[in-house]
Design goal:
3 helices, 24% helix, 202 residues, 2 domains, transmembrane, membrane, lipopolysaccharide transport protein A fold
């Protein structure tokens, strides 16, 4: 019994020394991996403050159906609420697509823009571009798309490359009409007709 008791005492004594050493070794290994696994993240308190002060949504995208039956989708690189308003947003790299019931498709894009969730309207600001599935390509100083109604209008004069030539106009609009959406140009429309292009049309 005495020998067994002495052995037990020696095991306990050894464990009191060995176990803390093992724990220390494990902790040292963890810290070593934490240091060598990659560069330390450089997150400053000022960065955290900026994120909290300026909330944003990265790469948002959503889709819906307009009252005229158009299938509409919109995406952006980044969106930020305007003065904390959860219904109004500014956007960068804004793009939208409107697929009309008659099969015509309008693709819109601009580097900057805004979206109003309450009215379901989007504004594409700066140099805005419109490309259609039937061969129109337009550039203008701004666009407004009513995503609820499925309509579109330019906010300034525009230059158009059409299947039959080039034209300039003060305004452009896509309105709902009997028989389907109608693309219209108005205000000092000037056309350069190129009949050689019409021969390429199906």
């Amino acid at each position: 019994m005495t020998q067994a008791g002495d052995a037990h005492t020696r095991v306990v004594a050894a464990a009191k020394v060995a176990l803390p050493l093992v724990a220390l070794a494990l902790l040292s290994t963890l810290f070593l991996f934490a240091r060598t696994g990659g560069p330390d993240p450089d997150i400053r308190y000022s960065d955290v403050e900026a994120i909290a002060r300026e909330p944003r949504v990265t790469a948002p995208a959503f889709a819906g159906i307009g009252r005229n039956g158009a299938v509409i989708s919109m995406r952006a690189g980044e969106m930020r609420p305007v003065d904390g308003d959860t219904q109004s947003f500014t956007a960068t790299k804004l793009a939208a697509e409107m697929s009309m019931p008659d099969g015509r498709r309008f693709e819109l894009s601009a580097e900057t823009g805004a979206y109003d969730a309450a009215t379901r309207t989007a504004q594409l600001t700066g140099l805005a571009r419109v490309d259609t599935s039937d061969g129109y390509s337009m550039e203008t100083a701004g666009l407004e798309a009513d995503l609820g109604a499925g309509t579109l209008r330019s906010l300034g004069p525009l230059e158009v490359h059409a299947p039959f030539g080039e034209l300039t106009a003060a305004r452009m609009s896509v309105e709902n009409a009997e028989g389907g959406p109608r693309l219209m140009f108005s205000g000092g429309v000037r056309l350069i007709y190129r009949p050689d292009r019409t021969g390429d049309r199906p």
